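Incident review: delayed structure delivery

Summary: a single-chain prediction request sat in the queue longer than the usual turnaround. Root cause was a stuck worker, restarted by the on-call engineer. No data loss occurred. The affected request and its eventual output are reproduced below so the record is complete for anyone auditing the incident later.

Affected input:
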Amino acid sequence: MLSLFYQNIVLKNPKSIFVLLLITLLSFGYFSKDFRLDASSDTLLIEGDPDLEYLKEITERYGSKEFLVLTYSPNEGMITESSINNLLSLKYKIQSLDWVHSVITLLDIPLLSNSEAPLQERLESFKTLKDEGVDTERGFIEILNSPVFRNFVISEDGKTSGIIVYIKKDELKDIQNKSVQEIEDYKDTLKKKNHENITQIREIIKSYGDVGKIYLGGIPMITDDMMSFIKSDIIVFGLGVLLFIIATLWFVFRKLIWIIVPISSCFFSVLIMTGLLGLLGWKVTVISSNFIALMLILTMAMNIHMSTRFLQLREDFPNLDNLKIITMTTSKMFWPIIYTVLTTICAFLSLVFSGIKPIIDFGWMMTLGLITSFIITFTLLPTLLSFMSNNKVKVKEDADSKITSFFCKISINNKSIIFLVTGFVVALSVVGISKLEVENSFINYFNKNTEIYKGMKLIDEKLGGTTPLEVILKFPKKNEEKDNENNSLLDKAIDAFEDWGDEDSKDDEKYWFTKDKIKRIQDVHNYLDSLPAVGKVLSFSSIIEVATQLNNNKPLGTLEMGVLYSKIPESIKKDIIDPYISIKDNEARISLRIIDSQDGLRRNDLINQINYDLKNKLNLSKEEFKLAGVLILFNNLLQSLFKSQILTLGLVMVGIFAMFMILFRNFKLSLIGIIPNFIAAFFILGIIGLLEIPLDMMTITIAAITIGIAVDNSIHYIYRFKEEFLKNKDYNKTLKVCHSTVGVAILNTSITIVFGFSILVFSKFIPTIYFGMFTGLAMLLAMISVLTLLPSLILISKPFGK
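Output delivered after worker restart:
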């Protein structure tokens, strides 16, 4: 029924179908204007992650502004008159930009040891390096020795300084009452504005290129550059894959018409899918940036199989007209192609279980893309073929047929060698997979020539690390009687400090500082600072150390700290102390940064170590501390993805096996059909493990995608083998026929896929390079397995009977 409907509606009305396809192309092409990109950090987080909600909570509690970081390494000494003037000029130029809230440089750091005036006077009217009459050398040494600013605003060697550029907040008012479209439009406006901001500040940096080395860093810059990378990757991958496909088609068919027909299918599929994404409002992220390349590759694979079968039937039945040949082709290829599409969809749908929105979207995106490619392949391709003349077209023998003939001989004559090699590959895979681990190294995601890498590397090495981590200490409530006793002592101490003035202070603030709290903050601070992977650590302990220096290196008592806090100027309190303690919430914040570029750094192990040591070495209960920050969020993402992909890999296997059973209705045949592809996928994971390359957010999806795509070859081969075996009832003869027919198509499509994925090595994003390289290699191994191991298993097991 379906076949008759397809013949009468599609095959017998090529002109009407072509017009309908053109209308569809133009309609979806119009919506492609709404095609959007998104490289924000929000796209790489787990929706509903409680750690994300907690990070938002503490960010609100301790205050946080979005900022950019510049590293400034002058050609001359840091505090020469020329370097100071250049830094001051750079600061004022950046400060003049309308989107900049404030700029903090080395020249804005309060100098509290630069004079002999009383401490209260120094706190209330502090000097900075840019002020007149300041001892520059003495002030610079004070900053270099500062527990707060060393390895933060100034490098330990004094040759590199950090410049913090705080960005004005631009919040959407009354967001609760805004529509989804209004919110999305607002986000798009922010991205455009951010791009303009980054462009402006880079122009300023460029104008100071002769005074020293200046690099730009920070989340807004990374986000903007990632957008540029995505755009570049889409263009480069799309064009590169297209060129490889054209070259492959010419190599295979040697006729212009056989380039135009498949390329037309690719063009229609990609443009319609792009318009569909625009219509649905799905945004392309770093993870899904290669969807166009994947669509081109998968569409081309379908078209090569269809075209090859058409040409073979044309050669076998030279007297039949085009319509009958097209009807035979579509009839014979419908079931193998529909099952290849379904198995590939099964693999991509496994990504839906990741819990990570961009990966879920990528899974659905490729699912819709495959359905689109299937529909176009079975409508546009036969329509275009029907417009061709009835000229006889022969498939020429070339190097491809010699390659498949070679594989054929090995499969028949060297089965023991094939099984021996397979056993070795399986053993190697098991060893490699046992060494697999997931890791999230942002700095290693980028090419060493990019500004992102150079800036992050310099910040890592000179200014205390890049990836932030927060440790929040929660203090238990003390005995009320003991508190009253401390309060009485503190009141007497305040009376003794006549030089601090007589302003009133809030009791809940001045009584907060106790010996136990200070000791706990100092112990945790010192522990974190001792870890090799940890760069700069900042906490209230850092402030205490500064206060001790100002107190002639005499440690302050807890009562003196309470007095100091109650009398310190609000400007200093807000910027230096309040970010590290919350008296209202009875907790303290320790902020640290991880040295992301450290060799052998394993972030999950580091997080587990910190949690373990805080409990077992520092005797903190689980309720008395909590880790938060970007490091935790991205580690959650990778661990979640790793677990979900390992679990869903089993579902992919079961799903594909079930489809084989439905298609072939033969348990033995279904089992041997999936074995070569699973071996190829696991072997590639084994290679990654043996090379000690950590799985990241892109490479972790290789196994499922490899199985989904590579299993297509098994379906085409077994389907054709079953068809040919019914004719001659001879396994060896059938194997030779299959290798010379469908084997050639498998070889051609595999070459296209391998070359297509190899284009990804030109990306500026390292995970994309690994994804392309290892997926391409997996496709090559899968093709060899299908043309050697699969036929050998068929010859040994004889699934079609003797």
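Verification: Confidence is low (pLDDT under 50) at residues 479-505.
Action items: add queue-age alerting; document worker restart procedure.
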